[in-house]
Write a structure and sequence with these properties.
The chain is mainly alpha-helical. The protein contains 4 helices and no strands.
Length: 152
């Protein structure tokens, strides 16, 4: 079935005007713009804070680098002074100034193993001075010292 299209019978088109109505502006666009601007402002503020923190920490790092370089220079200077003071020529010269003379001959003295053991025990700061197990008694340790020195 077909329906015929007809013009409305209301009269001429010039006599009838469309009615005008006030349309409210969309608030959604304004909200989106304000929200985006706020996000951008917060982001820029955060970046400024981060850059400030980075700059202040870099200043601290630079100061530490400078102090490390100064201490390395000081260490090198002290090492050079130490090497100069320990030089054999300087030690020989200083010994002669104090009235010392080189030895013409030398001799070795034998040391009693008990004296050696007592000296080792009294001057030791390390537990591994003589590789002697802890479970040995003093007499067993004395015997081992004598064996090591070839006196047994």
């Amino acid at each position: 079935m077909a329906i015929a299209l007809r013009k409305p019978a209301s009269g001429s088109p010039a006599s009838r005007r469309p009615t005008l109505q006030v349309v409210e502006a969309r608030r959604r666009t304004t909200r989106v713009v304000v929200f985006t601007a706020t996000l951008v402002a917060i982001g820029l503020g955060t970046l400024a804070v981060i850059h400030t923190q980075i700059a202040s920490r870099q200043a601290v790092i630079d100061q530490l680098d400078r102090s490390i370089a100064e201490e390395n220079d000081r260490f090198d200077t002290l090492r050079a002074v130490r090497a100069e003071l320990r030089a054999p020529v300087r030690l020989d010269q200083r010994a002669r100034e104090l009235g010392m003379a080189p030895a013409l001959d030398s001799s070795f003295l034998s040391v009693d193993p008990l004296v050696l053991a007592m000296a080792m025990a009294s001057t030791s700061t390390d537990n591994d001075v003589a590789d002697v197990p802890d479970y040995l008694g003093p007499l067993d340790q004395f015997r081992m010292v004598k064996i090591m020195n070839g006196m047994d």
